[in-house]
Amino acid sequence: AQSVTQPDIHITVSEGASLELRCNYSYGATPYLFWYVQSPGQGLQLLLKYFSGDTLVQGIKGFEAEFKRSQSSFNLRKPSVHWSDAAEYFCAVGAPYGNKLVFGAGTILRVKS
Amino acid sequence: EPEVTQTPSHQVTQMGQEVILRCVPISNHLYFYWYRQILGQKVEFLVSFYNNEISEKSEIFDDQFSVERPDGSNFTLKIRSTKLEDSAMYFCASSDRQIEYFGAGTRLSVL
Questions:
Q1: What would the pLDDT profile of A37-93 be if each residue is shown by its tens digit?
Q2: Min Cα–Cα distance to chain A from B96, Å
Q3: Is A1 helix (H, G, I), strand (E, B) or coil?
Q4: Which residue in the set B44, B56, B103 is minimally distant from A43, CB to CB?
């Protein structure tokens, strides 16, 4: 069965510190992997995606993620967090051509000054 | 930048009433979806729609739910007789074959 695990429900980091949000997936075929961000009262905004090729992908707002097939992981990173990054982050797995996304439970990021 | 538009942003209804949630997907997209997020829980898939028919639905999507694309631009989710447990944020998404773009959601409150 398809599933996504985000082991950290909450993470608090200091502004300017580095960030890594963990994501592990289970998927029968070659996965398409996504990170979305949801600010309070907002919809889901795509941060980045991995389909194939280079396993380190760059996204918006200075985020990057690395696909590691051997570990079934797709962790999200940012070298220096800004207060505006405080939000909830969702990892998702899917496939093209109309296949649904399966989401993780989300990680709430708090940024302290 | 094109975006998915959902209306209303907040819908309050009485238990047993019918509600229709509306979505305008991105114009050249072919695949359409509804997801929901109960407060404090993960985003769950409800249904996908392609070529004017349902392509996949979850076990949540029972007979009281229906979707329709009544014209070339709108995509609606109807809940026939709302229950308290239908209270959630409902997200519409559309896809260009690879990436799903989400609307801001409709918060449904069933009283």
A1: 998 878 899 999 999 889 999 999 999 999 999 999 999 999 999 999 999 999 999
A2: 8
A3: coil
A4: B103
A27 — contact with chain B (CB < 8 Å)? no
Instruction: Measure B105 CA to nearest chain A CA, in Å.
Output: 6
- The B-side interface with A (CB below 8 A) comprises 4, 6, 30-31, 33, 35, 41-45, 48, 50, 55-56, 58, 91, 93, 95, 97-105
Question: Would you call A51 and B98 a contact, using CB atoms and an 8 Å cutoff?
Answer: yes
pLDDT of B2 above 80? no
User: Three-state SS string across chain B, please?
Assistant: CCCCEEECCEEEECCCCCEEEEEECCCCCCEEEEEEECCCCCEEEEEEEECCEEEEECCCCCCCEEEECCCCCCEEEEECCCCHHHCEEEEEEEECCCCEEECCCEEEEEC
Which of chain B's residues have a Cβ under 8 Å away from the Cβ of A97?
Answer: 31, 97
CA dist., res. A81 & res. A77, Å (int): 10
CA B72/CA B74 separation, integer angstroms: 6
**Structure tokens, A24:** 């592990």
Amino acid residing at B27: S
- As a whole number of angstroms, the distance between CA A86 and CA A74 comes to 20
